[in-house]
Design brief:
four-stranded antiparallel beta sheet; binds flavin-adenine dinucleotide; Enolase-like, domain 1; alpha+beta; 20% strand
Length: 327
C-alpha cells in the first residue's frame, strides 16, 4: 500500500499546532514519524494533514533545582544525558532496549508513549479489530493470543501496549504535560493509557487536539537504584514479551520504598503494588525478592496460549531485582 496524499503544516508555536489540530478533524500530529508513517503506509491511519511538531523547541531536557527533570516531548529516544543516566538509570536502559539505533534516532518521547499497539490483527486491516474499527470484533480473541495481555484485558480487546519507555516512566511516577484547546494540564502517566473495557478505540486520556509537550519526573528516592529488564524473542529489535522496571530505596539494607512496573502484559504499563508491598520493610535479599516475584502475578488472568507469561513475569521480576541487588 502507499501513503495517501496529505497536507503538511509546520506550525511555529505549540498554540498554532493545537489550533490547526482543533480546526481540522483529519489532522494528526507527527513527531519522528516512525509509527505514524508505517500505519499510514499500511492503511491503518489516513491523516489528511500532518502537523509537524519538530521545530517547536520541545526537544530539551531541563533540570530544576529540586531535582525534577522535564524532558521535552520531541527529545529523541537516542538521548544520551549523563545526569538522566545517573538519576534514573531505568529510563536510559528502557530506551536502549527498544527498536534499533536508527529508529531511536528518529523516535521521540511523546511519540513513543502514543505509539499504537503491535497486535498483528490491529496492524492488518483485513482482520476484525475493535480498536481500529469499533464494533467490528476482536480477531485476536479467537486467534493467536500468545503475545497478548494477562492483566486488564476485556472481551473487546486483548492487546498489550508496546512501549518500553512508558513502563520505566510509570515506575518513576512520571507526569505528562499536555497543551490543548482549553489550555495546559498534567496527566499522571498511570492515567494516560486506558484499559480497553468495551471502548478499546479510546486508547489514551488525551482529548482531541491535545499535544504532549513534555514529560516530568519528580525527584524519586529510588531513582538512582533502578533497573529495566526486557525479555523478548531475540536480543534486539523486538518488542517485550514481558519486561520489568524495578526500583528500590534502601536504608541499612532494608527496603524503605519500591516500585515495580511491568511491560508486555497489559494495554498500559502495569504497576505491581502487591510486589512492592512484598519488598517493603524487608532486607533486600533473595527471600524478599522471591516473595515480590510471586506477588507480581497477583490478579493475572491468562489465556491458555499466553499462560507462559505468568511464569515469565515471576522470572523477569526476580532477575531484575536480583541484578539490582548485585549492583
Ligand atoms: C521496527 C521497530 C521496532 C520497534 N521496537 C520498539 C521497542 O522495542 N520498544 C519500544 O518502546 N518501541 C519500539 N518501536 C516503536 C518506536 O519506538 C516508536 O515508533 C516511536 O517511539 C514513535 O515515536 P515517533 O516520534 O516516531 O512517533 P510518530 O510516529 O511521529 O507518532 C506516533 C503517534 O503519536 C502521536 N504523537 C507523536 N508525538 C506527539 C505529541 N508530542 N503529542 C501528541 N501526539 C503525538 C502521533 O500523532 C501518532 O499518533 C519500534 C518501532 C519500529 C518501527
Amino acid at each position: 500500500m502507499s501513503v495517501r496524499p496529505f497536507h503538511l503544516t509546520r506550525p511555529r508555536s505549540v498554540a498554532e499546532a493545537v489550533g490547526v489540530l482543533a480546526r481540522d478533524p483529519g489532522a494528526a500530529a507527527i513527531a519522528g514519524g516512525t509509527d505514524l508513517i508505517t500505519l499510514a503506509r499500511d492503511g491503518i491511519a489516513a491523516p489528511s494533514r500532518l502537523v509537524d511538531l519538530g521545530g517547536l523547541g520541545l526537544d530539551r531536557i531541563e533540570w530544576r533545582p529540586d531535582g525534577t527533570v522535564r524532558i521535552g516531548a520531541l527529545c529523541r529516544n537516542a538521548v544520551d544525558d549523563a545526569r538522566l543516566r545517573a538519576e534514573f538509570p531505568v529510563i536510559t536502559e528502557a530506551l536502549r532496549s527498544g527498536a534499533s539505533p536508527q529508529i531511536r534516532n528518529m523516535a521521540t518521547f511523546g511519540g513513543n508513549l502514543l505509539q499504537r499497539v503491535r497486535c498483528p490483527y490491529f496492524r492488518q486491516p483485513e482482520f476484525a479489530c475493535n480498536r481500529r474499527a469499533p464494533g467490528s470484533g476482536c480477531a485476536a480473541a479467537d486467534g493467536d493470543g500468545s503475545r497478548q495481555a494477562i492483566f486488564g484485558a476485556s472481551p473487546a480487546c486483548i492487546a498489550v501496549h508496546p512501549s518500553d519507555l512508558a513502563v520505566a516512566l510509570r515506575a518513576m511516577d512520571a507526569v505528562v504535560l499536555v497543551a490543548g484547546p482549553s489550555g495546559s494540564r498534567r496527566i499522571p502517566l498511570d492515567e494516560l493509557h486506558l484499559l480497553p473495557g468495551d471502548t478499546p478505540h479510546r486508547e489514551t486520556s488525551l482529548g482531541r487536539a491535545e499535544v504532549i509537550t513534555a514529560i516530568e519526573i519528580p525527584p524519586r528516592p529510588f531513582g538512582r537504584r533502578s533497573h529495566y529488564l526486557k525479555f523478548r524473542d531475540r536480543a534486539s529489535f523486538a518488542f517485550a514479551l514481558v519486561s520489568a522496571a524495578v526500583a528500590v530505596e534502601l536504608q541499612g539494607g532494608v527496603v524503605r520504598s519500591a516500585r515495580i512496573a511491568l511491560g508486555g502484559v497489559a494495554a498500559k504499563p502495569w504497576r505491581g503494588p502487591a510486589a512492592e508491598a512484598a519488598l517493603t520493610g524487608r532486607r533486600f535479599a533473595a527471600a524478599a525478592i522471591a516473595a515480590a516475584a510471586d506477588a507480581a502475578v497477583a490478579g493475572a488472568a491468562p489465556r491458555p496460549d499466553n499462560a507462559y507469561k505468568v511464569e515469565l513475569v515471576r522470572r523477569v521480576v526476580r532477575r531484575a531485582l536480583s541484578e539490582l541487588e548485585q549492583r
